[in-house]
Amino acid sequence: MEIIYNPDKKLWGDLTARCCVDSPEIDRRVEAIVSDIKANGEKALRQVVERIEGFVPGKFEVDQAVITKAAEKISPELKAAIKTARRNITAFHTAQLRKEPVVVETMPGVRCEQRVLPIDRVGIYIPGGRAPLFSTVLMLAIPARIAGCREVVMCTPPRADGTISSEILYAAAVSGVDRIFAVGGAQAIAAMAYGTESVPRVDKIFGPGNRYVTRAKQIVAADCVAIDMPAGPSEVMILADRDSNPLYVAADLLSQAEHGPDSQGIALTDDVEMAEKTAAAVEMLAGKLSRKEILAESLANCRIIVVNDREEMIEFANRYAAEHLIISTADPEGIADRISAAGSIFIGAHSPESAGDYASGTNHTLPTGGWAVSMNGVNTDSFLRRVTLQTLTKEGLRSLAPAITSMAGAEGLDAHALAVTIRLQNNP
User: Fold this and answer.
1) Is 61 considered catalytic here?
2) 218 in Cβ contact with 209 (< 8 Å)
3) In the beta sheet, which residues pair with residue 354?
4) For the whole model, what pTM was predicted?
5) Whether residue 324 lies in the annotated active site
6) Cross-strand pairs, 386
7) Which residue in the list 324, 333, 350, 364 is annotated as catalytic?
8) Is the separation of the CB atoms in 383 and 143 below 8 Å?
9) DSSP H or E segment with residue 345
10) Out of 323, 364, 395, 416, which one is annotated catalytic?
11) pLDDT in tens, 23-66
12) Is the four-CA dihedral 289, 293, 298, 303 of positive or negative sign?
């Protein structure tokens, strides 16, 4: 891994840049897929799937019998692990649920309320390419159920033989997914956004994916349906000092690098010896892992950066705004208190990012690409909407009328003022 020693702050912008670049060709392809399915529905969906996958199933929806049978193929050990993760995710996301209405009398006769309602039907997208990410099913379906969504629809790409992994099907069954469709890519996003004869239209789409999926989500979000967030390649930043274990730091870097060739890991330290030991540990451990081809590509996007001191570590971390931030230093809590931008923070030497990815209880669907400066990861609130209400008595409207009519007049909106004065004139 490349080690960068004490870079000038003028270079920090380049060092915090992500590895992805815009691709007009991908944009063109995705826009064509989305517009075709929007205009032509099921017919276009089947044509797109056949063109991309080389085959099209008789139907996209997975039969309940297939879902039920998938449980027989899961080992008792994995079932126990999934149930542990489900229990912890449920506990943490249930604690986030706040459905109590807000009621305030802002002035005599003027009552304002806020009610919390679940989104009716949500769609979740589960990648199934290089690895079947069944853990993401838990992260999305469980909070949707806790929030009270009426229906959870899932799309995931089938394997080459047209089937879906048993792990994904089992996770969907135990998480409360209602309907599962074997379709992936930009075409799955378009199908959920606009609806087809087989795939129902949803009100909000959740889930990570490749650049085609991400671009499709951005397109439909500008047109007709909400999305959770822009979701790019996975990333991690690790803060380390002389007290850190370089093997731990290296393992955490590799755990993100193995996601895909465009994943990124950065180790940030104020200790030169730690940087050099970490680089050696990465090389040693990478040779023992199974996904060597992916690691060879993604490690080119990773780097170790040596800065002057702890203060610069904190400043750089906040500028980078990592999806995952691991603080493996002396006094990690003290540093965590000063972090203002990160998707999820892992505090201390015994808190690997893998814990949050799978089973600690926090959600692993997080903002990437620096979006953590202004966005949070998926949580129970992501599946809720807040509706405001107001009730004015005759006396309340009379008291508020001068403010309303004055402001309406200043904006040149006479009908707004009329809606008030006509009530007062006809009901003095």
Assistant:
1) no
2) no
3) none
4) 0.94
5) yes
6) 116
7) 324
8) yes
9) strand 344-347
10) 323
11) 899 999 999 999 999 999 999 999 999 999 999 999 999 999 99
12) positive
